[in-house]
């Protein structure tokens, strides 16, 4: 398995944000965490990343217990809403960041950065600053930065949020390609069912801190397990 979470519980003050969340994601799978705002999706992702710790439950990464492992030792790439690009660094420096803190040799860092800038078709823009890029270009830099250290696990929290429709579609294709070419295990959070159905091999539907259903897009559509899933997937948003 790539990622396993078991019995995750998390409380913020009086609010039970996660109430016994369990699921398994196989290596090489691309899975969507789908559900309405406030349902606990970001919290699950942050716990998998090690940015947050659960009150109860376990996290396993690549077949090993990682429940208490520090974020820097988990070797996970993530693109989170709160983790925007470093504004005072060039595109190149942004993409190099994860490699530099891992103390890789300079020549290797340069080579890998070039490779990933080419992969997201931003070669030639390495010396620009984030403010000089479009929204879609920035998200591609964020993807390159997440992937450059060579991780096989990628977490994306609403990676297409705040972008216009055309750029969202482009980025979706990027992600599909990266996933296929690199054999990544990926989890992305979305509240957009169409995006989830299109990109994910399986979908985990979450609401109010609980998993409502796990299944392929077809299963979720054709055989919704709960009334919530039926109305959420059936609704046009
Ligand atoms: P989603 O990503 O599905 O919108 P979140 O995981 O962000 O859901 O949030 C779930 C609930 O937890 C929300 O009610 C949110 O207000 C609350 N929450 C999340 N993070 C914190 C925090 N650091 N402190 C207090 N409450 C939080
Ligand atoms: Mg969220």
UniProtKB/TrEMBL annotation:
GO biological process: quaternary ammonium group transport
GO cellular-component term (any): ATP-binding cassette (ABC) transporter complex
GO molecular function, one term: ATP hydrolysis activity
Segments passing through the bilayer: none
Protein origin, superkingdom: Bacteria
Keywords: ATP-binding, Cell membrane, Membrane, Nucleotide-binding, Sulfate transport, Translocase, Transport
Keyword tRNA processing: no
Domain called ABC transporter: residue spans: 3-233
UniProt key word Transport: yes
Coiled coil: none
UniProt-recorded name of the protein: Sulfate ABC transporter
Organism the protein comes from: Chondromyces crocatus
């Amino acid at each position: 398995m790539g990622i396993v979470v078991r019995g995750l519980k998390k409380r913020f003050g009086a609010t039970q944000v996660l109430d016994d969340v369990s699921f398994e994601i196989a290596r090489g799978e691309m899975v969507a965490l789908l559900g309405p705002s406030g349902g606990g999706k970001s919290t699950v992702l942050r716990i998998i990343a090690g940015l947050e710790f659960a009150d109860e439950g376990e996290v396993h990464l690549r077949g090993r217990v990682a429940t208490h492992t520090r974020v820097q030792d988990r070797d996970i790439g993530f693109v989170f809403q709160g983790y925007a690009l470093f504004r005072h660094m060039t595109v190149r420096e942004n993409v190099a960041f994860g490699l530099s803190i891992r103390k890789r040799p300079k020549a290797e860092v340069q080579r890998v950065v070039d490779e990933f800038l080419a992969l997201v078709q931003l070669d030639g823009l390495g010396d620009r600053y984030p403010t000089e890029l479009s929204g879609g270009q920035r998200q591609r830099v964020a993807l390159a930065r997440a992937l450059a250290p060579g991780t096989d696990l990628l977490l994306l929290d609403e990676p297409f949020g705040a972008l216009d429709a055309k750029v969202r579609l482009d980025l979706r294709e990027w992600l599909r390609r990266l996933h296929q070419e690199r054999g990544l295990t990926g989890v992305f959070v979305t509240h957009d069912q169409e995006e989830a159905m299109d990109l994910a091999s399986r979908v985990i539907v979450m609401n109010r801190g609980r998993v409502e259903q796990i299944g392929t897009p077809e299963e979720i559509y054709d055989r919704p397990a709960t009334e919530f899933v039926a109305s959420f997937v059936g609704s046009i948003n």
